[in-house]
Design a protein that fits this description.
5 helices; about 25% strand; about 140 residues; single chain; alpha+beta
Length: about 140
């Protein structure tokens, strides 16, 4: 488990592989061998088919150039996630494909997110801006 924690800290943080290896007391090459199995772990949130009143979708970039798109429900619980290289339409479509059409989508108004929502969930009827966040009412 220590190897997996070190892998997660390295993959989502700003440490170099050598710095992460030093925390485990091994060389960079040994660290790479120790964490090789971690790259095959595929955590998933199974699609449950629940229709949520509201979904908030946004991306966050890691220190290594990857982006993690996360969709949360009205209570802030993750509903789905998608790793990608950038917040673009194809990435958001992969995320939205696993989520039932919600009552409303809250996003930052990025073109990729909006285009993906329009393609995956028909009937986006209105767009409002509230506190810098774009709210797409799908009703």
């Amino acid at each position: 488990m220590a190897e997996f924690r070190a892998f997660l800290a390295w993959a989502t943080g700003k440490e170099s592989m050598e710095e992460a290896a030093a925390r485990l007391g091994v060389t960079g090459r040994s660290f790479a061998r120790c964490i090789a199995w971690c790259r095959n772990v595929r955590p998933a949130i199974p699609a449950d088919g629940v229709v949520h009143d509201c979904i908030e979708a946004d991306g966050t970039y890691t220190g290594h150039g990857w982006c993690l798109l996360v969709a949360t429900d009205g209570n802030g619980r993750p509903v789905a996630w998608q790793w990608c290289d950038a917040e673009k339409k194809a990435s958001y479509r992969a995320l939205f494909r696993r989520i039932a059409r919600p009552g409303a989508l809250v996003c930052d108004g990025g073109a990729g997110c909006i285009a993906a929502a329009r393609e995956e969930w028909s009937g986006i009827s209105r767009r409002d801006v509230c506190g810098g966040r774009t709210i797409h009412l799908i009703l």
